[in-house]
Amino acid sequence: MCTASRVAVIGIIVEKKDHVQLLNELLSEYGEYVIGRMGIPYKEKNINIISVAVDAPQDVINSLGGKIGKLDGVSAKISYGNV
Question: Domain tally for the chain?
């Protein structure tokens, strides 16, 4: 198994604010891999847009993205860098 780290951005859209605490718990659980995070409340659409930069093995990034995507009312997409 390859454990080389990759740099990625996870784009997250939160449509149901009931799950923000669960999302924050997941991000804290993977906190050692988080480089930075930016959240934007989009009040006109009643959603939150969050981008999380991570540096981790690809399987860790995929695991985090999958867990986030399983939250009801939360969607996530991962974009990998070539670094």
Answer: 1
Neighbours of 61 (CB within 10 A): 23
Which residues partner with 41 through β-bridges? Answer: 48
Do the Cβ atoms of 7 and 80 come closer than 8 Å? yes
Over residues 37-68, the pLDDT tens digits come to 999 999 999 999 999 999 999 999 999 999 99
Q: Residue 33: which domain range? A: 5-80
Strand partners, 53: 9, 36
Q: For residue 77, what are the β-bridge partners?
A: 11
Residues 6 or more apart whose CB falls under 8 angstroms from that of 7 comprise 35, 53, 54, 55, 80, 81, 83
pTM: 0.90
